Amino acid sequence: MTVVLSDTTQVEEVEGGLHVRKKEMGLTALVPGLAVEVQGSTNAQGQLLADRVKFKASDLKTAQDIQAGLSPVQAQVQVQQQQMQQQEAVKVLQNRGIAGN
Fold first, then answer.
1. Alpha carbons within 13 A on the beta-carbon side of 43
2. pLDDT of residue 51
C-alpha cells in the first residue's frame, strides 16, 4: 500500500514496554525497512494519507544498521556498472575499428 506523507503528518518514536514514552521525530527519520504503524484515511486512489506514523526505537536502530550496511554494497555495484559500461564502450569502438578495416 502506498502511504502519502505531508507536512502535517506526525512522526513519533515510541519507547518502553508499554510504548508510553513518545518522541517527536521528523519525516527524515523514516528510512527504508523501518516497521511502522500508520494511522490515517484512504483517498480515491487507494493510498493511505498518513495523519500519524509511529515506530519503535529498536526498529529504527535496526533499519539504520541495515541501511549503513547497504551503502558500501550499493557503491560497489555502481562502480561495477560503470566498469561494465566502459568495457562495452571499448567493445563498440573495437568492433567499429574491425569493421572499418
1. 11
2. 95
